[in-house]
Design a protein that fits this description.
204 residues; alpha+beta; eight-stranded antiparallel beta sheet; 8 strands; DNA-binding
Length: 204
DNA sequence: TAGGCGATGACCT
DNA sequence: GGTCATCGCCTAC
């Protein structure tokens, strides 16, 4: 079985720079979400909000969580190899990063001077970049000012993976990826609504 | 149209 | 470790 496109895209985004509103972040942690077949994905139910996930790849999908935090995703587009219908609307949630440009502005937006925590967690990352619902649908590859992705970077030599944070469904799918030895990577927390984790068969 | 939920994060013990 | 703020969506009626 081939690796889903969204997982390849998630790996490719690690180490890449996302330029926001006068702040740039090097991405250190991501989560992959499949399309209709992934019950944890917003694309599992096709609604007005998730419609963008079924559209063009490399668009920014911003949604609001708990009424307080904005979370930013990169739409990866259909995966013809993964679904004969080509209708697996994948997206990669940007979970954490390191501010590499505009640190002062990011500190002001976040209200902290702890640089490791400026973009730690999806809500904080979006906050540091100044991303909001107004940025939803932005073409991340379009040249010029505005939110966009920096150039591709060589694949990371080592990428760690684990279960996705905070999801109630498909909570044990290890589609969370992060770079080792990065203090900006957020801590794992299982959703209280997720069923109990399977007991590991061997102790590492 | 009303009610409930959630891909969070900060704070408290 | 646990609790809770807070509001945009989604679903059911």
């Amino acid at each position: 079985m081939s690796v889903p496109l969204v997982v390849l895209r998630a790996h490719g985004l690690l180490g890449r720079v996302l330029v926001g509103h006068e702040v740039s972040v090097r991405i250190t942690e991501v989560e992959a979400y499949g399309g209709a077949a992934d019950p944890a994905s917003h694309a599992a139910t096709r609604t007005a909000r998730s419609e963008i996930m079924h559209g063009e790849p490399w668009r920014l999908y911003v949604y609001r969580s708990y009424g307080l935090h904005s979370c930013a995703n990169v739409v990866t587009g259909p995966d013809p190899a993964g679904d004969p219908a080509g209708d697996t609307a994948g997206a990669v949630l940007l979970r954490a990063g390191v501010v590499v440009h505009g640190v002062e502005l990011a500190r002001a937006r976040r209200g902290t001077t702890d640089d490791d925590r400026l973009a730690r967690g999806p809500g904080n990352l979006a906050s540091a970049l100044g991303l909001g619902l107004a940025d939803n649908g932005t073409d991340l590859l379009a040249p010029g000012p505005g939110v966009r992705l920096g150039p591709e970077v060589p694949a990371a030599r080592r990428v760690l993976s684990g279960p996705r944070v905070g999801v109630a469904r498909a909570a044990d799918v290890a589609w969370r990826f992060w770079l080792p030895d990065e203090p900006s990577v957020s801590a794992y927390r299982r959703s209280p609504r997720a069923p109990a984790a399977p007991r590991p068969r061997t102790v590492p």
